[in-house]
Write a structure and sequence with these properties.
Layout lengths: L1 H14 L2 H17 L3 H4 L1 H10 L10 H12 L6 H10 L2 H26 L2 E2 L5 E2 L2 H9 L4 H17 L4 H15 L3 H16 L2 H30 L4 H13 L13 H16 L6 H5 L7 H29 L9 H10 L5 H32 L4 H15 L5 H24 L1 H19 L1
Antiparallel strand pairs: 1-2
């Protein structure tokens, strides 16, 4: 068992090594130049569309509903624990490289959202299905179907045994127990029941919940983080200096911190950034496909804001609170590190963070439930949806009592492997993305006249 764990650890480090990270960021760079810095020039329009999209096309939910579902899966424990881990290992400079990954990742996320709508289809239940498995098969051609199947299988495995279940339910029950003393079995029962009530209703039910919960949890975290920034406002210039200096220079060791090379800052910043915003992994376009939009590029713009909200705003807030309070250089790690930063600025800071962590984790469960469902539908048809939902709910209940590092290692590996077929499709269909973008912008220009 120990040898297997070591082997999986080695495979995991290989999968998430420099080649995949370079491919992920490189794809974003290619789209950034081919689309003419669209993530900068069209960001005001994208933010406007988040709340004012016309929702005229075919689809199951509004553009905002699709974005909220994607954000539900994206904004998770990685925004708190992942950022803390990146800065702990890579130093403050890791936050700079997290920003870089997000900047180019916005262009990738735009392409994913566009292609998801362009190549979506209606399943036998009359619901929209879309995502990488469809734009691989329909866009690249039927000969690439094995790649599409590979993606879908990976998506189901991640949803059932990885990001969608065990890490999230474990984060919820452990936070509730350590902060409020609530027994694990009680928390597990409540979360399992809530998951069942929401997910059995499908995407419309999930979207109904996420459109309410995601904005609330983001605002609570925004306010709490802002309080930390205000209390330690005098430290912000020094923090920014540490971030920029650490991005290109080795960070000196101190306290519980081991010291970081520039490569550690780059690797951890990019890796944790990609883990957090999921740009290029192919998960978010599954939700984007269901949006009621006429123009694929319109949903691409809305999808692009997901990376902006997740990393540029939420991860930045987490990173800055860790640096300005000085806890990044202490002996704590992970969620405890962020708790220490919140406690340093306000009473009951750790309780507030616990509440945010639980909401982040629960909404991630909902979002990944839908991702896995659509992958199952692609592989086995609509008859597999209900059995999948039942298995998912059961695993949520069991996951609170399971601590299997081997499964988490395996899920990380499969999560990384999801990106490979998706990136092949994105690069192969980049011409389609450019053409659709030009058509939409021409339409917008004509419409204004």
């Amino acid at each position: 068992m120990h040898m297997l764990e070591q082997w999986l650890g080695s495979v995991n480090r290989f999968v998430w090594g420099p080649p995949l990270l370079i491919l992920l960021v490189g794809t974003g760079i290619i789209f950034t130049f081919r689309l003419g810095l669209l993530q900068v020039i069209r960001l005001p329009l994208a933010l406007k569309l988040v709340f004012k999209a016309k929702n005229e096309g075919e689809g199951d939910v509004t553009s905002f509903g699709a974005l909220a579902t994607a954000l539900a899966a994206t904004i998770g424990t990685g925004n708190i624990v992942g950022v803390a881990t990146a800065i702990k290992i890579g130093g403050p400079g890791a936050l700079f490289w997290m920003w870089m990954a997000a900047f180019f990742g916005m262009a990738t996320k735009y392409a994913e959202g566009l292609l998801a709508v362009k190549f979506r289809k209606i399943d036998d239940n009359g619901q929209i299905s879309g995502g990488p498995m469809y734009y691989i098969e329909k866009g690249l051609g039927i000969k690439f179907k094995p790649l599409a199947v590979f993606f879908a299988v990976s998506g189901v495995l991640v949803a059932l045994f990885g990001v969608g279940t065990f890490p999230q339910i474990n984060a919820i029950v452990s936070s509730a127990q350590s902060s409020l003393g609530i027994p694990v079995v009680v928390t597990a029962g409540v979360v399992t029941l809530l998951t069942a009530l929401v997910t059995i209703g499908g995407l419309k039910s999930i979207s109904h919940v996420t459109t309410k919960v995601v904005p609330v949890m983001a605002i609570i975290y925004l306010i709490a983080s802002s309080i930390v920034l205000i209390v330690f406002a005098d430290q912000i210039p020094h923090a920014l200096s540490l971030i920029l200096h650490g991005a290109f220079n080795a960070t000196a060791a101190g306290g519980g911190f081991l010291g970081a090379t520039v490569m550690m800052a780059i690797r951890n910043g990019i890796a944790r950034g990609v883990f957090s915003n999921e740009s290029g992994l192919g998960s978010a376009p599954i939700a984007a496909a269901a949006a009621k939009v006429k123009w694929p590029a319109e949903q691409g713009l809305v999808s692009m804001t997901g990376t902006f909200f997740d990393t540029i705003i939420i991860c930045s807030l987490t990173g800055l609170t860790l640096i300005i309070t000085g806890v990044w250089n202490g002996s704590t790690d992970g969620a405890e590190m962020t708790q220490a930063a919140f406690d340093a600025a306000m009473p009951y800071g750790s309780i507030i963070l616990m509440f945010c962590l639980i909401l982040f984790a629960f909404t991630t469960i909902l979002g990944w439930n839908y991702y896995g469902e659509r992958c199952m539908e692609y592989l086995f048809g609509v008859k597999s949806i209900l059995p999948y939902r039942i298995v998912f709910i059961v695993l949520i209940g069991l996951g609170a009592f399971i601590k299997l590092e081997l499964i988490w290692q395996l899920s990380d590996i499969v999560n990384g492997l999801m990106a490979l077929p998706n990136l092949v499709a994105l690069l192969g269909l980049s011409g389609v993305v450019v053409t659709e973008t030009r058509l939409y912008l021409k339409h917008m220009k004509t419409h204004k006249k």
